[in-house]
Q: What sequence folds into this?
C-alpha cells in the first residue's frame, strides 16, 4: 500500500548561524547542513494504522512532510498504491489526506466554505463536493455549525472541520502529524474515533504521536525514528515484546538506548 | 488559480480591517483629513494677516508722513518706550514688551534737496514663515520712498513724464503660452501622483500580509501546498488578489476625491476643481490607470515575496515598512521642483510613472516616452512576478 524506502533530507545551514552546544553534539549537524532525516524506511498495508514515535526533533515531521509531498527528499522513494510520490507529486496528492494539530482554518470562512475550498482545489465538481460534505457533516456531527465562521468556533469544532477538510477528497491514505497534541480530552477523542473509522473503512493511517496509550489502542504497526533514522519498524506486538513486562515506555527506551550504544561502539 | 483568487477575495471582503483600508480610508477619512488640514492652514494665514503688531519708533519726528501712515495702519499699534539703544530694544522685543522697533537715522531729513542715502534699522523676530511685519512695513516704506523719490527728482528738474523713463527704462509685458490645463497640471499633477502611488502600495500591502504571512501564521499553508494544484497557480491567484485590491484602492480614492472635489467645488464656488475635471478626458484617466496597473503589479509581487518569506504578520510588517520608504524615495525625486520627464528619468522606476501621470494631467505627454515607461514597468513587473513564483517553490522560504 505505502512503501517508504531510505528517505534522506538535509537542510542547508546559513553561514554565520551559530550552533548551540546541544546541536553540536547531534551527529546530524555538519558544517554546511543539518541532516534532519538520514535513513527512514517503513511500510504500511491496507487498513493498518501506523504509529510514528520518536523524541522531539527526531525527524518525524520532516518525514511526514516528505510523505505528504510538501517537502522534496534528497534521496529515497515513497510509493503510494504503486504511484511514485516524488515523480508524480500532483497525482499522489489526490491520494493523500494530511492533518496536523497546528493546522489552521481560514478564520473568515465558514466550516462549509473552508472544506469546499479544498474540495475545489482537489478538482471536485460542485455536486460531488456538496454531497460529500453533507456526508462528512453527518459522520462528524457538524451540521449545527456548518455555517459558522471558523473564528467563532470552539477548538473541538475547528478540529472536526480540519478533519473533514483533510478527507473531503476521499484519500487513499491519511497522514496525521501529532494530531492530538495540545487538544483537550473531548477533542482528542474525536480525532481517535476518526482514526478508528478510517481503519474500519480500510484506509491506512500514518500518524506521529507522543502518547503511548494512543499507540496501544490504535496501532497495528510502530516505527521509532531517532536522530533521523528509523530505528524500529515492526508490528505493535513486536514493539511490545521489547520490554519484559510489556510496558511500552520501556520498549521505547530500549530502542532509543540501543541506537545510542550502537553509535558509541562505532 | 481562479479558485484561489475568488476564495482570497471572499475572505478579504469579509475582513473589517481590509475594508477599512481599501474603502473607508479613501472615501471618508482622507477627504476629511485633507479638508481639516486645508481649513487649519487657511485659518492660520488669516490669523497672521489680522494680527496686530506693537511697534516703537525712534526719531519719529524726522519722518512725520511715515509715522502717520504707521499710526493709522490697522495691523500696527504704537507703543511708548524710552529705549533708544538697539541692544536694549532687541532685549525688549525678546521680553515681549513690543514686536517691532523702527530706528530712523538721526541725520535723516525728508527735505527734497537732501541727496544722500539714509540708513534705517528695523528690529523684530524674523523666524516666522509668514513674515507679515516685513510685508506690511515694506508696503508703507515703498509708498513713502516713492513720494520722496518723486520730490527729489522734481528738485533736480526731472518732470513727471520723465520719471518713468528714468526709473524703469524698460517695461515688460509677459505673455503665457501655457494653457491653463498645463499650468494647473504642473501644480497639482505631481500631487495626484503622490497620492495615487502610495495608495496603490497601501492597498496592496495589507492583503499581501494577510494572504502570505497570514497563511503561515494560521497554519493553512501546508494544507494548501499539498493540494493537487501547482504552486504557480497558488502564487498567481494570490498575486491577482493583491493586484485587485491595490488598484481598487486607487480607483476608489480617485473617484472619491473627484466626487468630494466636485461637491466642495460647487458648494464653495471654487471652479478650479471643476475645471481640472473637465479638462481631463476619459482617455487620460484610462491612460493613468494603464500606468498604475504594472506599477501595482510590481508592488504586489514585491509585497507577496516578502510576505510569504515572513513567518508571521509581525515579521511581514517589519519587512514592508522599509519597502514603503524605498518606494517614497523616487516619488519625492519626481516631485522636486524642476524635475522634468526626460529619458533619464523615464528609466527610474516609480518616479517615471509619477512623472508620466503628471504629464498626462498636464496634457503634454510624449507618446513614445509613455510607451517606453509602460513597457519598462511591465518588464520589471514580469521579472518580479517570475521571481515571486520561483521564490514560492523554495522550501527554505516556505518552511522556515
A:
Amino acid at each position: 500500500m505505502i512503501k517508504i524506502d531510505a528517505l534522506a533530507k538535509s537542510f542547508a545551514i546559513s553561514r554565520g548561524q551559530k550552533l548551540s552546544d546541544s546541536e553540536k553534539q547531534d551527529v546530524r549537524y555538519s558544517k554546511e547542513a543539518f541532516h534532519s532525516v538520514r535513513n527512514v524506511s517503513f511500510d504500511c498495508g491496507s487498513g493498518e494504522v501506523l504509529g510514528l514515535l520518536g523524541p522531539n526533533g527526531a525527524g518525524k515531521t520532516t518525514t511526514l512532510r516528505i510523505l505528504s509531498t510538501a517537502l522534496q527528499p534528497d534521496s529515497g522513494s515513497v510509493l503510494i498504491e504503486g504511484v511514485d510520490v516524488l515523480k508524480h507529486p500532483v497525482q499522489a496528492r489526490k491520494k493523500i489526506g494530511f492533518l496536523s494539530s497546528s493546522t489552521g482554518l481560514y478564520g473568515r470562512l465558514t466550516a462549509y466554505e473552508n472544506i469546499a475550498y479544498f474540495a475545489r482545489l482537489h478538482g471536485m465538481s460542485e455536486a460531488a463536493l456538496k454531497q460529500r460534505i453533507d456526508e462528512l457533516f453527518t459522520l462528524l456531527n457538524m451540521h449545527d455549525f456548518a455555517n459558522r465562521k471558523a473564528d467563532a468556533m470552539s477548538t473541538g469544532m475547528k478540529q472536526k472541520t480540519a478533519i473533514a477538510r483533510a478527507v473531503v477528497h476521499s484519500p487513499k491514505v491519511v497522514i496525521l502529524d501529532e494530531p492530538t497534541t495540545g487538544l483537550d480530552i473531548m477533542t482528542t477523542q474525536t480525532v481517535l474515533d476518526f482514526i478508528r473509522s478510517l481503519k474500519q473503512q480500510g484506509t491506512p493511517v500514518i500518524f506521529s504521536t507522543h502518547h503511548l496509550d494512543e499507540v496501544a489502542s490504535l496501532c497495528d504497526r510502530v516505527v521509532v525514528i531517532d536522530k533521523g533514522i528509523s530505528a524500529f519498524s515492526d508490528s505493535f506486538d513486536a514493539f511490545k515484546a521489547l520490554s519484559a513486562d510489556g510496558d511500552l515506555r520501556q520498549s521505547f527506551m530500549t530502542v532509543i538506548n540501543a541506537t545510542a550504544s550502537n553509535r558509541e561502539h562505532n | 488559480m481562479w479558485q484561489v483568487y475568488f476564495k482570497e477575495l471572499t475572505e478579504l471582503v469579509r475582513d473589517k480591517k481590509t475594508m477599512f483600508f481599501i474603502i473607508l480610508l479613501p472615501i471618508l477619512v482622507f477627504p476629511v483629513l485633507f479638508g481639516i488640514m486645508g481649513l487649519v492652514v487657511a485659518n492660520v494665514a488669516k490669523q497672521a494677516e489680522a494680527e496686530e503688531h506693537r511697534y516703537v519708533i525712534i526719531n519719529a519726528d524726522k519722518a512725520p508722513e511715515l509715522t502717520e501712515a504707521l499710526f493709522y495702519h490697522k495691523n500696527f499699534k504704537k507703543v511708548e518706550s524710552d529705549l533708544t539703544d538697539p541692544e536694549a530694544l532687541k532685549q525688549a522685543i525678546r521680553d515681549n514688551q513690543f514686536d517691532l522697533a523702527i530706528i530712523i537715522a538721526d541725520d535723516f531729513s525728508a527735505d527734497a534737496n537732501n541727496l544722500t542715502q539714509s540708513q534705517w534699522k528695523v528690529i523684530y523676530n524674523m523666524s516666522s514663515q509668514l513674515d507679515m511685519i516685513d510685508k506690511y512695513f515694506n508696503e508703507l516704506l515703498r509708498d513713502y520712498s516713492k513720494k520722496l523719490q518723486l520730490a527729489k527728482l522734481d528738485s533736480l528738474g526731472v518732470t513727471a513724464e520723465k520719471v518713468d523713463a528714468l526709473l524703469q527704462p524698460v517695461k515688460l509685458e509677459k505673455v503665457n503660452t501655457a494653457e491653463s490645463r498645463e499650468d494647473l497640471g504642473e501644480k497639482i499633477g505631481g500631487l495626484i501622483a503622490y497620492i495615487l502611488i502610495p495608495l496603490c502600495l497601501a492597498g496592496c500591502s495589507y492583503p499581501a500580509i494577510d494572504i502570505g504571512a497570514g497563511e503561515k501564521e494560521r497554519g493553512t499553508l501546508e494544507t494548501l501546498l499539498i493540494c493537487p494544484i501547482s504552486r504557480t497557480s497558488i502564487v498567481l491567484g494570490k498575486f491577482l488578489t493583491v493586484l485587485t485590491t491595490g488598484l481598487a484602492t486607487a480607483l476608489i480614492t480617485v473617484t472619491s476625491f473627484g466626487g468630494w472635489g466636485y461637491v466642495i467645488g460647487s458648494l464653495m464656488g471654487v471652479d478650479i476643481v471643476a475645471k481640472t475635471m473637465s479638462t481631463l478626458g476619459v482617455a487620460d484617466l484610462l491612460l493613468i490607470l494603464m500606468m498604475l496597473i504594472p506599477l501595482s503589479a510590481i508592488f504586489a509581487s514585491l509585497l507577496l515575496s516578502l510576505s510569504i518569506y515572513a513567518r508571521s504578520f509581525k515579521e511581514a510588517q517589519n519587512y514592508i515598512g522599509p519597502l514603503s520608504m524605498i518606494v517614497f524615495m523616487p516619488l519625492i525625486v519626481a516631485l522636486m521642483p524642476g524635475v522634468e520627464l526626460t529619458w533619464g528619468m523615464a528609466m527610474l522606476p516609480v518616479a517615471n510613472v509619477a512623472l508620466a501621470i503628471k504629464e498626462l494631467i498636464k496634457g503634454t505627454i510624449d507618446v513614445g516616452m509613455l510607451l517606453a515607461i509602460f513597457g519598462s514597468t511591465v518588464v520589471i513587473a514580469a521579472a518580479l512576478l517570475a521571481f515571486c513564483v520561483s521564490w514560492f517553490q523554495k522550501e527554505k522560504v516556505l518552511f522556515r
